[in-house]
Amino acid sequence: MKLSIFILGGGLIASTWAFQPASTSTSTSTARARTLTLPRPVSSLSAYVDILESAGRDVGAMDEWASNCGVQRVEGVQLTSDDGLDWSVATTSDLPSGNPILYIPTEMILSSSRVQQELGDAIESSLGQLGRLDDSDQISKFYLFIKVLMEYESGDQSPYFPWLNSLPRGFYNGPSMTHACYECLPPLVSSLSMN
Questions:
Q1: Residue 82 has what DSSP assignment?
Q2: H helix runs in the chain, sequence order
Q3: pLDDT (tens digit per residue) in 116-128
Q4: Is 157 exposed, middle or buried (0-12, 13-18, 19+ CB in 10 A)?
Q5: Structural domain total, the chain
Q6: Model-level pTM greater than 0.85?
Q7: Containing domain of residue 48, as a range?
Q8: Which of 86, 112, 111, 116 is nearest to 18 (CA)?
Q9: Closest C-alpha to 49, from 146, 149, 152
């Protein structure tokens, strides 16, 4: 039986939960306020998440990191991959329907309200712009997006580095099409797709 890796992989932006530091140490005077109580990778040189589509995913390091942060999974649940690119969650035995397969500590849940507390007034002008564009329903997603960008910018100094480095880089769906993809389409389909 296979389940989607959405919970551990790409769920950070699409939903309001993923991995959150265990304690909150907030400073509202700067957008660089950090909560750094999760285990950090040790490195003498600063490393960044390689965002090239050909970059490998380090799912093993993310799995170890999640365990160190208190994530637990039911016996028999494991991460699997046939090609090292696409990952899924599989079970080695039947599990009763409706039972949880993961335990994620509450303090690890990344929510827009926690990010809002962390950032304080640091992005107030950006929020004002969203309000002027009548996109106020997108504010919670905006907070999460800003948090991901801040952590990405921090490279391996971010406590989220193992998680970010395990995310997929290549996507093969409509929203991920590049200009080269549009050039391969017949002219009418290309113009309709681009609009």
A1: S
A2: 11-14, 59-68, 112-119, 124-132, 139-153, 161-164, 179-184, 187-194
A3: 999 888 888 888 8
A4: middle
A5: 1
A6: no
A7: 2-170
A8: 111
A9: 152
